[in-house]
Amino acid sequence: MKRRGKQSDVLPVTAEPERKVPRRLRVESEIFEQLSLAVLELEDPRLSGVSVSRVQMTDDLRLVRVYVRSVGLGPNADEGKQRSILRGLSSASGRLRRSLGATLDLRYVPDLRFFYDTGVDHARRIDELLDEIRSTEG
Predict the structure, then answer these.
(1) pTM of the model
(2) For position 91, which CATH number holds?
């Protein structure tokens, strides 16, 4: 609801939340930024080279699926190393949630679930297959 009155009484447009963007997406963006920084600050040797690739939040803002990648692991990555990374992140989830709680203005700090992001590897494999098909056709 807009207030009527003098121009100086009305909030500037930049102070109002974006009305067309759902709150979940705005919070996801903030969580992505904060977790990306917080993961870099962790001192666990299992997490060296790990970065957050994307986050997905439930509509009730209670659960966040955090997808991570490791710079050192390629498409044929050892599942043991992936599990080690996920265990390291799970053990640090309390510190990560505390960091989120200190920076975000939410009633509840969401639970974090970690997944290794294989989407990039799948896309790379599809590109390889398509290139192979093109080379045999032409």
Answers:
(1) 0.73
(2) 3.30.300.20
**Amino acid at position 28, single letter:** E
Q: Do residues 115 and 66 make contact, with C-beta atoms less than 8 angstroms apart?
A: yes
**Phi/psi of residue 111, each to 5°?**
-70, 150
34-81 pLDDT per residue, tens? 999 999 999 988 888 899 999 999 999 999 999 999 876 665 667 788
Residue 57: strand pairing partners: 64
- Summary count for the chain: helices (H), strands (E): 4, 3
Q: How confident is the model at residue 21 (pLDDT cuts 50, 70, 90)?
A: confident
- Residue 48, C-beta contacts closer than 8 angstroms, at least 6 positions apart: 72
Alpha-helix runs per DSSP H in the chain? 23-41, 79-91, 93-103, 119-137
Q: Is residue 126 included in any domain, yes or no?
A: yes
The CA distance from 16 to 22, in Å, is 14
- 66 within domain boundaries: yes
Q: How many domains does the chain have?
A: 1
